[in-house]
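Q: what does this look like with LLZGTKA7 bound?
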Amino acid sequence: MSSAYKRILLKVSGEALAGDNSFGIEPPFLHGIASQIAEVARAGTEVAIVVGGGNIFRGMSGAADGTDRVTADLMGMLGTMINALALSNAISRQGIKSKPFSAATMPSVADTFTARDAKQALEDGFVVVLGGGTGNPFFTTDTAATLRAIELECDVVLKGTKVDGVYSADPMMDPDATRYAEIGYDEVIRRNLKVMDTAAFALARDNAMPIIVYALDDEAGLAGVLEGRGLSTRVGDPL
Ligand SMILES: Nc1ncnc2c1ncn2[C@@H]1O[C@H](COP(=O)(O)OP(=O)(O)OP(=O)(O)O)[C@@H](O)[C@H]1O
Ligand SMILES: O=c1ccn([C@@H]2O[C@H](COP(=O)(O)O)[C@@H](O)[C@H]2O)c(=O)[nH]1
């Protein structure tokens, strides 16, 4: 296997960890994703991961149910930490060194994220799994993924999710939606395509960080997507 990328930032959707359920972590899905990550790491690509938390708690829905937004977002960020611990452990069980970091200080749980320490861990051959999002309310793990990719000088963000790319409309809602093979940052923002939030796309644009959106259950797997096989959409400046 050969990949054009030396260091990648993989965003793993929290919802994908729940598999066919709407909540929690399903071990076969967790271990399937960990095995794809281990394959890529074994082949020499440095991998940093940001995990979402949609399978545990989303701040917006908590706030809609009456919890104040800041508290609800803190709960959401803690949810991503649960996923980060689970994924880091699953990667270690594949025989690949992995270290979780937390955006919030919780020393008995994980090292606190600093770009310096996370970069050092990557250079030492660890897959780093970054929980707690950006550490700030009113953000998402998509923005955290883009931010960390820039801080860690990654070559690309891979957004692994339930759909196989960016569509003209939400493909879960509109069966006539069509997939883009490639789309520019400004167009994805102008068309308000919701596969990632606008803040994440704007940060990526301003720092020329390319994003590849693909389905975590793509047959080609993460390794194949990195080699340009499988279905995906590249968001970025025209090649
Ligand atoms: N134009 C679009 N193209 C593709 N997907 C879209 C589009 N608009 C909305 N979506 C939806 O965006 C979803 C992916 O984003 P979402 O933020 O919900 O998930 P995630 O960030 O991967 O999950 P989590 O919050 O659990 O980590 C897809 O499942 C899809 O239904
Ligand atoms: O930087 C961040 C990242 C996340 N949150 C909260 O966590 C949940 C889960 O994250 P998803 O990106 O939706 O998977 C999110 O709904 C926010 O409530 C945050 O506050 N700040």
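Residues 14, 52-54, 58-60, 72-73, 76-77, 79-80, 133-134, 136-137, 139-142, 144 surround LLZGTKA7 (ligand 2) (CB under 6 Å). The two ends are 23 Å apart (CA to CA).
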